[in-house]
Inverse folding.
C-alpha cells in the first residue's frame, strides 16, 4: 500500500528507535502468551486433574519439546509430594505475576520508543512541506488556493498523525502477538487451529471491502477542508471590504453552503468508519461460537490423537479471546490506513511538486555585477495566454529604467524575470553577458533588492524585519539603514524602539511606516540592483514625500528597474520602457516620449486629468 511505503520511508531514518520498539514488543508478547499459557495447568491443578499432568509427559503436539509440558511435568512431580498442591499453586501464581509484570514493563518501553518515531515522522513531513513551499516558484501560488496549502499543513498532517501513524503500534505489535498466540494455539490443538485459519479469511474479505471505500470518502472531506480554509483566509484578509459593502450575509451564505457540504461528507465517511468495530466484533463472536462447537466435540470425542483435555480447551478459548483484540486492532488499522491514505497523497503531491525554477548542478556563483542586465528576444506565456512578446532590453549598470503601461501590459512579469522568479518561455535573460540560468539562484538574488507596492512584513520586531536579508546585522547597521529610509525617527519614538513588535503583516504601523521599513530592509542588504514596484501609489501626501525621499536615497548609485504607477515619479529615469499587451511600443526618456505624441503621452495626460 502506497501510504505505508511513504510512512516506512520516513521510519527508515530511525533504525535504532525502530529496533528498540520492535524488540520490546516481542518481549512483551512472549510474556503475555506465557501468562495465558499457564491457565491450562492452573485449571488442571485446581480441578485435581493429576492424571492429565501425567499424560503430557511424553505426548501431545511437540511432545517433550513443548515448553508448556515442562511446566506441567514439574507441577506433576511437585503435586506427588506431601503438600505439593499448595506448593504448585504458589509456583504458578509467581510465574504468572512475574510474566504479567514483565509484559507490562516491556509494553511501556515499546511505547516509550514509539512516541519519538511518531513525532519525528510528523515533524519531518511538516518540515518537508514547508521547505517545498519555500522552493516552489512564485507562479505556483497564483494557481493554488492558499487555504488548500494551509489545509495540507494542518488538517492533512493531523489526519496522518491520528490515522496512519497511529496504526504503527498495531502494525508492529499486533502481528507479533498474533503469531505467538497462533503458535501456542497450534501447540494446544492443531486441528482446532486449522479450523480457525479457514474461517478468518472470510472476515478479512468483508472488512477489506469496507476499508477501500473509506479512502475515497476521506479524500473528498480533505478537499472540502481546503475549500473551507480558502474561504476563511479570504474572509480574514478582506474583512474591511466585506463590511464596507454590507456583504456579511452573502459571504456567510457561501461559507454555510460549503460547511453544509462538509457536514454531509463527514457523516458519510464517519458512518463507514464506525461500521468497522461492530462488523469485526460480530465476526469475532461468530468465530468463538465455531470454536466452542468444534472444540467441544474434540473434548467430548474419544478418538486418540484428536482430543483435548478440559484445561487445554479452556486455555485455548482464553488465548483466542485475547487474539480477537489484536485482530480487531489490525482491522481498525486497515480502515485508518485507508482514511490516512488520502491525506498522505495530498501531502506527497505537495512535497513532490515539480520545481519549475531549477539550478544547474554546476551553476556558478554571481559574485559581483559589473556591466549590464539584458533581455534578448524574451517571450513569456501564462497557460495559453502570451504575456510578453519578443522583449529586447539592455539595462546598463548605474542606470534607472522605468517600466510603464496599462494594467496587464506585462510590467511585473518582465521584472520577475530578472531575479528568476519565473523563466522565459523563449529568449534569454543575461547578467554581464551570461545567461542567468548559469548562476545559482541564491547568488542572483543576493545582488538584488526588491521593494513592492504592498509592504510585506512579518509578525516580528522592527529590527528583525529590517535585518531579514542579513542574518548577522549589528544594531548600528540597522539604525543606519533606518535613517537612510527616513524611518529612524518614528521607530525611536516607540516605547520598545527597534524591538517593537509590528503585529500581523505590520498591522500596528501606518502605511507609510510599513513602507519605510521595507526600504530600510533593502538599504541594509545594500544590493547593486534594485527592483521597485512603486511604493508610493497608495500613500497620503506626507507619507509619499517621506517614502519617495527614502527611495531616492536607496536608488543612489544603483541600477534600478522601476515599475511605475504614477508617471510623475519617473521623469528623471534614464530610460522609460512603454509596454502594451506584452510588447515594447515606445522607449526613451520622458521628454523624448512626450515629443513622440504617442501612447506614453496619452497615459500622462490621463493621469493629469485624474
Amino acid at each position: 500500500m502506497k501510504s505505508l511505503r511513504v510512512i516506512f520511508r520516513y521510519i527508515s531514518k530511525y533504525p535504532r528507535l525502530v529496533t528498540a520498539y520492535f524488540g520490546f514488543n516481542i518481549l512483551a508478547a512472549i510474556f503475555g502468551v506465557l501468562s495465558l499459557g499457564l491457565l491450562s495447568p492452573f485449571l488442571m491443578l485446581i480441578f485435581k486433574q493429576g492424571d492429565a499432568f501425567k499424560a503430557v509427559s511424553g505426548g501431545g503436539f511437540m511432545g517433550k519439546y513443548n515448553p508448556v509440558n515442562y511446566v506441567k511435568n514439574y507441577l506433576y512431580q511437585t503435586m506427588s509430594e506431601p503438600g505439593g498442591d499448595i506448593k504448585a499453586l504458589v509456583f504458578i501464581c509467581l510465574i504468572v505475576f512475574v510474566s504479567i509484570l514483565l509484559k507490562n514493563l516491556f509494553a511501556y518501553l515499546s511505547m516509550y520508543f514509539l512516541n519519538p518515531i511518531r513525532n519525528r515522522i510528523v515533524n519531518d513531513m511538516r518540515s518537508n512541506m514547508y521547505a517545498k513551499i519555500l522552493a516552489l516558484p512564485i507562479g505556483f501560488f497564483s494557481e493554488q488556493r492558499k487555504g488548500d496549502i494551509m489545509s495540507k499543513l494542518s488538517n492533512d498532517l493531523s489526519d496522518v498523525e491520528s490515522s496512519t501513524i497511529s496504526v504503527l503500534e498495531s502494525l508492529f505489535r499486533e502481528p507479533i502477538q498474533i503469531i505467538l498466540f497462533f503458535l501456542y494455539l497450534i501447540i494446544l490443538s492443531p486441528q482446532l487451529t486449522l479450523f480457525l485459519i479457514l474461517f478468518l479469511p472470510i472476515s478479512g474479505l468483508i472488512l477489506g471491502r469496507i476499508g477501500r471505500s473509506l479512502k475515497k470518502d476521506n479524500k473528498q472531506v480533505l478537499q472540502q477542508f481546503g475549500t473551507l480554509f480558502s474561504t476563511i483566509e479570504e474572509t480574514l484578509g478582506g474583512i474591511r471590504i466585506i463590511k464596507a459593502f454590507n456583504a456579511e450575509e452573502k459571504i456567510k451564505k457561501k461559507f454555510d453552503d460549503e460547511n453544509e457540504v462538509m457536514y454531509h461528507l463527514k457523516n458519510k465517511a464517519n458512518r463507514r468508519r464506525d461500521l468497522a468495530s461492530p462488523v469485526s466484533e460480530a465476526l469475532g463472536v461468530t468465530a468463538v461460537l465455531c470454536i466452542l462447537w468444534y472444540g467441544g466435540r474434540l473434548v467430548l470425542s474419544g478418538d486418540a490423537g484428536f482430543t483435548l483435555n478440559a484445561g487445554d480447551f479452556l486455555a485455548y478459548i482464553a488465548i483466542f479471546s485475547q487474539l480477537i483484540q489484536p485482530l480487531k486492532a489490525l482491522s481498525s488499522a486497515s480502515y485508518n490506513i485507508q482514511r490516512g491514505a488520502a491525506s498522505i497523497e495530498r501531502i506527497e503531491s505537495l512535497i513532490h511538486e515539480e520545481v519549475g525554477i531549477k539550478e544547474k548542478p554546476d551553476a556558478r556563483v554571481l559574485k559581483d555585477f559589473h556591466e549590464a542586465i539584458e533581455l534578448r528576444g524574451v517571450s513569456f506565456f501564462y497557460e495559453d495566454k502570451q504575456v510578453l512578446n519578443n522583449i529586447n532590453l539592455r539595462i546598463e549598470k548605474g542606470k534607472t529604467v522605468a517600466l510603464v503601461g496599462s494594467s496587464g501590459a506585462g510590467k511585473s512579469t518582465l521584472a520577475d524575470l530578472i531575479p528568476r522568479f519565473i523563466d522565459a518561455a523563449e529568449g534569454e535573460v543575461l547578467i554581464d553577458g551570461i545567461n542567468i540560468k548559469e548562476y545559482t539562484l541564491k547568488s542572483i538574488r543576493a545582488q538584488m533588492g526588491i521593494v513592492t507596492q504592498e509592504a510585506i512584513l512579518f509578525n516580528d520586531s522592527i529590527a528583525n524585519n529590517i535585518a531579514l536579508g542579513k542574518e548577522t546585522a549589528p544594531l548600528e547597521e540597522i539604525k543606519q539603514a533606518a535613517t537612510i529610509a527616513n524611518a529612524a525617527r518614528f521607530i525611536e519614538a516607540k516605547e520598545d524602539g527597534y524591538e517593537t513588535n509590528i503585529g500581523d503583516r505590520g498591522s500596528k504601523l501606518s502605511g507609510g511606516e510599513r513602507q519605510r521599513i521595507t526600504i530600510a530592509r533593502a538599504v541594509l542588504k545594500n544590493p547593486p540592483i534594485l527592483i521597485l514596484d512603486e511604493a508610493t501609489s497608495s500613500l497620503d501626501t506626507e507619507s509619499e514625500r517621506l517614502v519617495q525621499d527614502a527611495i531616492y536615497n536607496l536608488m543612489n548609485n544603483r541600477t534600478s528597474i522601476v515599475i511605475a504607477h504614477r508617471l510623475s515619479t519617473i521623469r528623471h529615469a534614464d530610460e522609460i520602457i512603454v509596454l502594451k499587451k506584452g510588447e515594447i511600443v515606445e522607449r526613451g526618456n520622458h521628454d523624448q516620449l512626450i515629443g513622440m505624441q504617442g501612447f506614453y503621452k496619452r497615459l500622462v495626460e490621463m493621469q493629469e486629468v485624474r
The longest helix spans residues 84-135.
